Amino acid sequence: DPDADPPPSPQGLKYEWVCTYLQAGVSVPCRGPDSQPIAWPSTEALTVAAGTLPASAIPYTFTLIVTKGSRAPGTFSVPVTVVNQVIPAVGLAVSAITGGYQMEDGSLYVNQDAKVTFAGFSDTPNTNLAWSVDGGVDATVPAVAPLGYTAPTFVLQLSPGVFQRGARYTVKLTGSLPVSNSGQGFTTGGLLINSPPSGGGFRACVLD
């Protein structure tokens, strides 16, 4: 029964997570909002849910200890600062494409003069949205984004003078809330511009 007898860790490795923070100059175990020590799972990857640790100006230190048999353990530590912020979860979807198509991985393969319409959304009402494109593309220019860059609907008009053939671009949607403790949530989508056709080769042969 896999549930009663789970398979061993990959390559016989065992994982242990330790969380500590400095209190009066002394390293002590991390505690939850109820002031009780937190027991961390012995897994390769660790996910810390929101609300697990109280906000603190002093960073928490997460240390992963990896052991295998009688070998010396390997360790790695990383500081984590927990802040009291409200961060909206935002997402984007492609609602229309002219001159291209969406690939299986979700990215877009488009012509140099394509037109793409994105729809942005958030899990929190009154989220302020802002769209941007990397690679030196200015999404505040009406010729690039005819409907603007702060609405849920974002129309991206490609043109040869702005987008380069064969190049990759990232469309980013950022969301923030009109409150003092708001953080920024974001999501991205990829654009690949159709490359120009390339010439092949040929050779001559004599037929008998």
From TrEMBL:
Keywords: Membrane, Repeat, Transmembrane, Transmembrane helix. GO terms for cellular component: plasma membrane. InterPro entries: PKD/REJ-like. It is found in: Membrane. Residues 1-202 form the PKD/REJ-like domain. The keyword Calcium does not apply. Pfam families: REJ. GO terms for biological process: calcium ion transport. GO terms for molecular function: monoatomic cation channel activity. This is PKD/REJ-like domain-containing protein. It comes from Hemiselmis andersenii.
